[in-house]
Amino acid sequence: MNIEPMGLRESKKQETRQLISDHATRLFIENGFESTTIAEIAAAARVAKKTVTNYFARKEDLAFDQQDEFVASLSRTVAGRAEGESALTALRREFLDGVERCDPVMGFSGEVFARMIADSPTLLARLRDLHDLREDALAGVLAAETGAAPDDITPRAVAAQLGGAHRILFQHILDLTLDGRSNERIAETVTVAAHRVFGLLEGSLADYAVK
C-alpha cells in the first residue's frame, strides 16, 4: 500500500486552504462580501461546497484567514518577552517592529481589502469579535505570568488597556489605508501615534508583568 507521507498531506491541505481563501477574497472584492455565496466560492476553487466549510467554519473566516495569528499575537508577545521586559514594553516593541515591516496582522491590508472590510457590516462585527478574543487571550497570559488570583481583576483591566491601544492603532491603520495612503506613509504616521498611545500607559503599566 502506498501511504502518502504526513508532510505531503499537510502541504496539500495548506495548498487547498490557500486556494479556497484566494478565490474567496477575489470574489468578495469583486462582488462584495455579503453578496458572495459559499457555493460560488466552491465553484471558483473547483472544490465541493462541503470542502469549503470543512476548512472554514464561517464565511467570515475566508476573509480573515490570518485570524488565529491575530488573536494569539499579543499573548504570544507577552509570553515571549525578554528578561527584565514588562508587558507594555514588549508589546510596544513588537508593534513598532510590525509597523516597520508593514505586517498584515497589524492592519496593513491594502486599500482594496480594507474597503472590502469597511463595506461589510458582517466583517466589521467579526473584526470586533477578533479584537475581543485577542484581549481575552492576553488577559489569560497576564494572569498566568503574574500569578494573579482567580478573583483578581487586574490582568483583565490591564489587558483591556493594552488591547484597547492596539485596537485604536489598528483602526488608525485601516482609516489611513482607506484614505489611499501608501504603506510607507502609514508606517510613518502610525509610528508617531504608537509612541503617543503607548506613552499614555507608561505611568500605570511600566512596571507591570516584568519578567
> Rough shape?
globular
Major sheet characteristics: none
Question: Roughly what fraction of the amino acids lie in strands?
Answer: under 5%
CATH hierarchy: architecture of the largest domain: Orthogonal Bundle
CATH-assigned fold name of the largest domain: Tetracycline Repressor, domain 2
Question: Could you state the oligomeric state of the chains shown?
Answer: single chain
The string of secondary-structure elements, in order, is: HHHHHHHHHHH
Q: What level of helicity do the residues show? A: over 70%
The count of strands amounts to 0
Q: Give the count of helical stretches.
A: 11
Per CATH, the class of the largest domain reads Mainly Alpha
Query: How many structural units, i.e. domains?
Result: 2
- The separation of the N and C termini measures 52 Å
User: What does the radius of gyration come to?
Assistant: 19 Å
Helix-strand makeup class: mainly alpha
Taking all residues together, what is the mean pLDDT? 95
Enumerate the spans where pLDDT stays under 50 for 5 or more consecutive residues.
none
